[in-house]
Design the sequence.
């Protein structure tokens, strides 16, 4: 079984598995990868830094009865992978027993087209620099922008391969390109910042003008911001903020977090936890998804997994171990940070299903409320067990159903279940946001939230 790309790496991975079995493993798998990343920073129209980095390595996981061991390295020669296999086997011999450890019971690949763009190879460094320069130019063109702090263009392409002792062997290629800008508007103590960002499979998919303009407009909209009066009111979260919350919630839908007692959603499968207006899925097969792939970190096919529908929590995300512990089947949610780490449970691409309201309609529906465009300290400000949170925020007042004065130095507070249940409407325009993982989010209208200011 194979997918496009990774044939040489597949051979390396198969050799590593054979070496692990020769070293006494009952079962084994090997994850091999190679990648090239490039990053360009510009300032005032000139290149500030340019980096080009490559990596290549392999991780070997072996199972001896109920014990498992892991080892990784960068030597992909026969001798190198044989040594890794021996080290992983030695690590397994001294590991604690885990009755749930082991490979998945079945394997496969999904058809996910368009993960790699051949267009990327056609772009010279000079053309990529021009993208970053155009992002900066567009940001600086705004009359209220006083400074552009950071402009970055980056891309990556790579291959991965996975083989195991059950006969699975597959690989794939992927590519990505992204750019962002951090712009400042105002002066002195009124200096406010705004972020513009774009993601694609290659630089041709990036709209440099739109990225720069977005950063500038987000900063300019906050010039003159003051602290609002405390209130309980409707709140509109823009897509960036919604993505941050959804990414955090996705982490708590991991079966590992649930089984460790680190999730407020433990024991809530099948229960109503959200408004029917909010529908959430994890989709590892969306062709546009930054973390889409034919298979997960253990060789199970990626798929679309509905998580919240009709207000109810449908399932958690499982890898082979957590599924075995729960008497369930894996959801194809084994995640790999790199070849340096064994797989763990993680979302692929969290996707909020779009609603039917434009942003202007959400704002109008809020009446007298607050539009939140940025939050600070989310990961330290949320209790994963109780779900309560209190985080700093900036944005704009909503007055008579229209965006009004900019506000800052305020705190929004609630708990995640109450927040999910208070979703009144979901925006019709979704976008990929690289905050809190890979998230496709839309603006959300919340019926009520506590806003603390002066």
Sequence:
């Amino acid at each position: 079984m194979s997918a496009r790309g990774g044939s040489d790496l597949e051979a390396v991975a198969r050799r590593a598995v054979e070496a692990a079995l020769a070293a006494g493993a009952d079962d084994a798998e090997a994850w091999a990868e190679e990648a090239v990343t490039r990053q360009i920073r510009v300032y005032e129209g000139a290149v500030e830094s340019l980096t080009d980095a490559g990596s290549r390595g392999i991780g070997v996981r072996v199972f001896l009865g109920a014990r498992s061991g892991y080892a990784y390295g960068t030597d992909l020669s026969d001798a190198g992978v044989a040594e890794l296999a021996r080290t992983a086997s030695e690590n397994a011999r001294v590991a604690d027993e885990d009755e749930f450890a082991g490979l998945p019971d079945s394997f496969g690949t999904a058809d996910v087209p368009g993960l790699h763009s051949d267009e990327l190879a056609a772009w010279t460094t000079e053309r990529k620099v021009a993208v970053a320069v155009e992002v900066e130019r567009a940001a600086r063109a705004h009359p209220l922008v006083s400074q552009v702090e950071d402009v970055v263009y980056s891309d990556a392409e790579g291959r991965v391969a996975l083989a195991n002792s059950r006969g699975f062997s597959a690989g794939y290629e992927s590519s990505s390109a992204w750019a962002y800008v951090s712009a400042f508007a105002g002066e002195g103590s009124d200096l406010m910042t705004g972020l513009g960002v774009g993601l694609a499979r290659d630089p041709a998919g990036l709209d440099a003008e739109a990225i720069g303009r977005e950063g500038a407009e987000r900063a300019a909209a906050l010039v003159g911001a003051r602290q609002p009066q405390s209130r309980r009111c409707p709140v509109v979260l823009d897509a960036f903020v919604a993505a941050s919350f959804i990414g955090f919630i996705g982490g708590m839908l991991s079966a590992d977090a649930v089984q460790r007692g680190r999730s407020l959603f433990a024991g809530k499968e099948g229960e109503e936890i959200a408004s029917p207006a909010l529908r959430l899925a994890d989709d590892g097969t969306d062709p546009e998804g930054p973390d889409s792939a034919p298979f997960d970190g253990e060789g199970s096919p990626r798929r679309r997994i509905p998580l919240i529908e009709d207000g109810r929590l449908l399932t958690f995300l499982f890898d082979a171990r957590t599924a075995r512990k729960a008497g369930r089947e894996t959801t194809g949610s084994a995640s790999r940070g790199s070849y340096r780490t064994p797989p763990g449970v993680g979302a692929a691409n969290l996707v909020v299903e779009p609603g039917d309201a434009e942003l202007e309609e959400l704002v109008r529906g809020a009446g007298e409320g607050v539009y939140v465009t940025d939050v600070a300290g989310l990961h330290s400000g949320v209790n994963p067990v109780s779900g309560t949170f209190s985080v700093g925020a900036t944005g704009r007042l909503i007055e008579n159903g229209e965006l009004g004065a900019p506000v800052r130095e305020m705190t929004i507070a609630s708990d995640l279940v109450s927040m999910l249940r208070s979703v009144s409407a979901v925006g019709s325009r979704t976008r990929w946001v690289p905050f809190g993982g890979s998230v496709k989010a839309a603006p959300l209208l919340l019926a009520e939230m506590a806003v603390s200011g002066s």
About this structure: The chain has ten helices and 20 strands. The domain at 7-220 is CATH 3.30.2290.10 (PmbA/TldD fold). Residues 198 and 206 are 6 Å apart (CA to CA).
